[in-house]
Amino acid sequence: MDPTLVSVTDVVRRVLPEDRAGALSGPDQELRDLGLGSLELVSLLVAIEDAFSVRLPADVMHQATFRSVRTLTAALRTATEAEDPHARPR
User: Fold this and answer.
1) Among 39, 63, 75, 80, which residue's Cβ finds the most Cβ atoms within 10 Å?
2) In this structure, is residue 89 part of a structural domain?
3) Cα separation of 28 and 26, whole Å?
4) How many structural domains compose the chain?
5) Alpha carbon distance 56, 79 (integer Å)
């Protein structure tokens, strides 16, 4: 499995309430279905930026980015490549 996708999944599980962390069934599951509201999405944004030492640009700050682990991973890759085209998210 893609290591960046696994890392993003781990961050999402840490942000989810404990009783819902195990309910994340895969990278395409809707995060809102797991109870992530607007406050939790802000926490998720901060956690992703901290974990990967990157700032997500304003142009990816929309609901579609935070739809799933997969869409969040794609936005992370875009942000990482924009900062350094030769960098890879850790």
Assistant:
1) 75
2) no
3) 6
4) 1
5) 6
Three-state helix/strand/coil letters over the chain:
CCHHHHHHHHHHHHHCCHHHHCCCCCCCCCCHHHCCCHHHHHHHHHHHHHHHCCCCCHHHCCHHHHCCHHHHHHHHHHHHHHHCCCCCCC
Which amino acid, one-letter code, is at 4? T
The structure's pTM equals: 0.85
Structure-block tokens of residue 30: 């809707």
Structure tokens at 58: 């304003």
Which CATH number covers residue 39?
1.10.1200.10
Segment 22-37, tens digit of pLDDT: 899 999 999 999 988 8
User: Which pLDDT tens digit goes with each residue over 44-67?
Assistant: 999 999 999 999 988 888 889 999
Domain, as residue range, for 53: 3-21+29-83
